[in-house]
Amino acid sequence: xxxxxxxxxxxxxxxxxxxxxxxxxxxxxxxxxxxxxxxxxxxxxxxxxxxxxxxxxxxxxxxxxxxxxxxxxxxxxxxxxxxxxxxxxxxxxxxxxxxxxxxxxxxxxxxxxxxxxxxxxxxxxxxxxxxxxxxxxxxxxxxxxxxxxxxxxxxxxxxxxxxxxxxxxxxxxxxxxxxxxxxxxxxxxxxxxxxxxxxxxxxxxxxxxxxxxxxxxxxxxxxxxxxxxxxxxxxxxxxxxxxxxxxxxxxxxxxxxxxxxxxxxxxxxxxxxxxxxxxxxxxxxxxxxxxxxx
Length: 294
Known about the structure:
Elements: H1 2-33, H2 37-43, H3 55-62, H4 64-97, H5 104-116, H6 121-131, H7 150-163, H8 166-174, H9 179-190, H10 192-208, H11 211-216, H12 225-241, H13 257-289
Helix pairs in contact: 1-13, 3-13, 4-7, 4-10, 4-12, 5-7, 10-13, 12-13
């Protein structure tokens, strides 16, 4: 009992130190976003800057309407895209995991093949724009790259195949359950840990994605938060390089090009930091619920 308590104390101390170490870069980003531009240029990033400033956030507030709209686009794409991705991934993984499915090896080969080879950016762009016509549509932010990934399919397939007993499927079949009912009533509830994991990873990919917007989106109303922040940064760099900034509506204020990068990072990661603690408890719960009990 004493050894157990000592181990728990030591583990708590070690994990606390690791959490502090992991949080230090995030804290530095937040502090840098509130630092003055001159102190950042003169002394670099510091936990104790010489001067504090809200210029970066003042500039971001001026872009408030666009940022709010971009947040809405990103939230919609993340939630809808993740839901569709999880559903399609699990529905594709289920028949591959069934030994009774005649074409499971052929289907598994095509899935695995995409992990090794792809057509490249140019052929993909031509396919999505000329044949599927998704350019400047919300679908362009959902379908390419993230809707179905071979890694997630193989991950779920292995879980179905190795962690769900065949006896459960046979019992459901004896009760007259169809394949669709077995999938929704038996397989998905038991795959909660894996589903939660791929949901988290897919959601982060959708939230952080800006390449799809770069390739397929020209309409500013469809900008995601990452693409909008990238555009704002490019605009600031262009304004700082021009001597006629006043004519472009920025006045004589020196634009906070360095600190605004940190402010953009804070705006980009803030929703993930707020949501992750709530998602984590579902991951832990999923491990318990998904366990097969004899």
